[in-house]
Amino acid sequence: MDVNRNPVDEARLRRLLGGPDLAWLLERVRRRLERGQPLTGPVSLAAATPAQRAAAERLLGRPPGGGRALTVRLDAVDAVLVRSGVSPEGLTAAVTRLTGPVVPLEEVRRSEDQAWVEAYAPLTALADEVPSLAEWAGRVREDGLVRRLARTPEAARPLLDRVARVLRELPAEPPRSLSVFAADILGSAHALDDGTPPATICLSGIRALTGHPDGAGAAWRRAAWASAGLLRDDVSSTVLTLNLRGTPALDWMADMGEPCVLTLRQLAHRPPRTTPSVVHICENPAVLSAAADTYGPDALPLVCLQGQPSAAALALLAHLHELGAALRYHGDFDWGGMRIATTLHQHVPWQPWRYTADEYRAAVAAASPAPPPLTGMAALSPWDPDLAAALAEHGVRIEEEAVLDSLLADLRQDVRPVRHATCRDL
Fold first, then answer.
1. Which regions of 58-134 does DSSP assign to beta strands (E)?
2. How many domains does one find in the chain?
3. Helices then strands, each counted (H, E), the chain
4. Is the pLDDT of residue 207 over 90?
5. 299 lies in the same domain as 157
6. Is the C-alpha dihedral spanning 391, 392, 394, 396 positive or negative?
7. Residue 66 CB: number of other CB atoms within 10 A?
8. Which domain of life is it from (predicted)?
9. 349: closest CA among 404, 414, 281?
10. What is the pLDDT of residues 126-163, one digit of tens each?
11. C-alpha span between 172 and 230 (Å, rounded)
12. Among 56, 67, 279, 374, which is least packed by CB within 10 angstroms?
């Protein structure tokens, strides 16, 4: 439009159409322009006030008609504006002058969609670098989590950039403090505090990265961070052991044949210097306690996970593996037990210790009374794919306590190990 050739008389336009009593009319016209609809036909306002009716009458030069609703024809308004010279280009030019340029909604949507594509660029790059996160990154783009947390693509881009920076560094090896890690990577010790948007999205990514099961609550969040090597502190994460040696304290406890609880701090500052050739691993403390009661210092070395492997457990087992230990694992024959075993398998290599489909079938056949039914969602058993199929076939769970005699038979050693330290070494 050549505004110099057909200028809008803005002063008259504001008196005629720009008052508050016709704001509803401007809003209806602008909405039609945004949607690409023609400015013809009637628009109505239910339960109009006398002031709104009077404003419409001044605009049209005649009463707008009776009835409860106030009805105005847009082509009639356009004709008035052109004929009076107030807006020679008509209603479109008038509304644009009063309310600002109109951007079609389709163009707005295209622009916003492109902005979100660009906002997700850090996740796209991360998925290219870490293929195990590709499926997760796709879910995050689709499930609306980022949009709920960031609201706008302008806020989402820096948020996802921070998330990508965190996940690129995980799992942290060796494990380290969550707050120190946050300060190093994001510039603030509180950047990954509970409830912050980066922490919420990072915890979602950690589940995909480490296989940590879904959950909720403070204890679950602590365990999820720990599964990626990030700890709220270095003494809360512990692992239960029996007859390991390699430090004065471990040697003394092994001489006594008593269980020992190791913290992550101890493992970080003074890990075992030696390892046995084979280390057995169990899921439940009852197995370790029974081995200590039955054999004492004559029991073979044993590590107990006590559920999902803690950061301390993972640190210990990785260290023993690096020293040359062969790891043998047994857990409950149920879906939860197989998820624990799978998580462990993602961090350290192990071979099954009576934890196969054949052992499960034998335990089911020998069980009396009948074992409890399986519950929960099915899981895989990558170390023995037939095991998952056997569980689905029989539909019952066999806990470690039910096969305790067989496990204990494997944990007896005939010759006691040489004592490496005494209490005077502590």
1. 70-73
2. 3
3. 21, 10
4. no
5. no
6. positive
7. 8
8. Bacteria
9. 281
10. 999 988 899 999 898 888 889 899 889 999 999 999 99
11. 7
12. 67
